[in-house]
Amino acid sequence: MTHPEENFDYYENICCEVSKEVNTDFIPMAPEIVQTSSFYFPTYEKFMDASDDEKNHYVYSRGTNPTTETLERMLAQLEGGEKCKVFASGMGAISATLFTLLQAGDHVLMVNTIYGEAVSFIQYMTKYGISADRVDVATTEDILNHLKSETKVIYFESPSSQKFELLDLDLITAIAKERGITTVIDGTWSSPLFQKPLAHGIDLVIHSLSKYIGGHSDIVGGAVIGATQLVDTIFEHGHQALGAVSSPFNSWLAIRGIRTLPVRMQHLSQAITTLLDGLAADTRIAKIFHPHCGNTDQQQLAQKYLTGYGSLFAIDLADESFDKLKVFVNSLSLVSIGVSWGGFESLALPAYKGNNLTNLQARGLSPAHIRMYLGLEHPESVLADIRQALDKAYGPMEEC
Ligand code: PLP
């Protein structure tokens, strides 16, 4: 004789029975997580209708899921876009988007110091007959010198990773629209709050949700936002087929992050100017890379396009000694060593890893270049920490 607990049906039955006993007369303060892989259909006809149009029906969570759709609708609204699709990572969104947009014979132009993994992905796509160039431009007009008749996509960040240079979005749109080129911006630095590229005619905005949107260094996610027709095509080919899907729980954590995004971003926008103003006079730092410290042209672009500042920036140390750089980074105590950014913790990440000088030269970066992220600690405390580490590595600052 078998016990009922050994029968699988028993578990399905108690799940159904017990869930009916649970009081459903409540309104949760936090949105619900629909943590399911698949959805039931009451009839075969309903299933056939749904599976014919998976982007608008819940069939299987690799395609659509109510928690993930809640996040997508929030992000689309924040960016002022028609539709959003979220992914398992920022790179998931970037690769799915470019995989969908490009085909053999097409050329893609990457402008300025975009995220390294995105460059690697685009370069890898050349094995499918796509050509690609990455260029550094002094002004946005210079983009014109690098376009080809087969250019189909301009891919860029503004501000860019590592050098945090801004481009003129209206000008890029004007250049691209005339030539039928699709424009894609990675807007992670500004978050959807501080820059609205779609309002300036950019076709698609990508975000790594792993940064400010998640906001707590506990998720990896990505998103692409734009016109419904474009995002639906990316859904069909880049999302459904490549499968870099956000789990309902990760989507839920991103929703939680968005609920505090404005408070965190407004704080950081103020705090970063305090920190950068404190570092500006330090003679041990040769250059600070951030729109707040940019030249007149950059300040004008910041004025035009940004309504606040992200807190990711970089410094070039005046002394390029690798040994001293190691002492500096190892002497930081409030600021930690680590990749990624956008969470609570302030971070430092030198670009030079002892073996990548050629790569740095190709990207126009000094071996004494350090990407830094101001987190939610007090900016004065982070400033004091950086100063004491500079003292240890380079000696006290010379008075001018
Ligand atoms: N875009 C920028 C500007 C980034 O800094 C990163 C990641 O570090 C990415 C995209 C990639 O995002 P993810 O790490 O979520 O794949």
From TrEMBL:
<dbReference type="GO" id="GO:0018826">
    <property type="term" value="F:methionine gamma-lyase activity"/>
</dbReference>
<dbReference type="GO" id="GO:0005737">
    <property type="term" value="C:cytoplasm"/>
</dbReference>
<protein>
    <recommendedName>
        <fullName>homocysteine desulfhydrase</fullName>
        <ecNumber>4.4.1.2</ecNumber>
    </recommendedName>
</protein>
<keyword id="KW-0663">Pyridoxal phosphate</keyword>
<dbReference type="Pfam" id="PF01053">
    <property type="entry name" value="Cys_Met_Meta_PP"/>
</dbReference>
<dbReference type="InterPro" id="IPR015421">
    <property type="entry name" value="PyrdxlP-dep_Trfase_major"/>
</dbReference>
<dbReference type="GO" id="GO:0019346">
    <property type="term" value="P:transsulfuration"/>
</dbReference>
<dbReference type="InterPro" id="IPR015422">
    <property type="entry name" value="PyrdxlP-dep_Trfase_small"/>
</dbReference>
<feature type="modified residue" description="N6-(pyridoxal phosphate)lysine">
    <location>
        <position position="211"/>
    </location>
</feature>
<dbReference type="GO" id="GO:0030170">
    <property type="term" value="F:pyridoxal phosphate binding"/>
</dbReference>
<dbReference type="GO" id="GO:0047982">
    <property type="term" value="F:homocysteine desulfhydrase activity"/>
</dbReference>
<dbReference type="InterPro" id="IPR000277">
    <property type="entry name" value="Cys/Met-Metab_PyrdxlP-dep_enz"/>
</dbReference>
<dbReference type="InterPro" id="IPR015424">
    <property type="entry name" value="PyrdxlP-dep_Trfase"/>
</dbReference>
<comment type="similarity">
    <text>Belongs to the trans-sulfuration enzymes family.</text>
</comment>
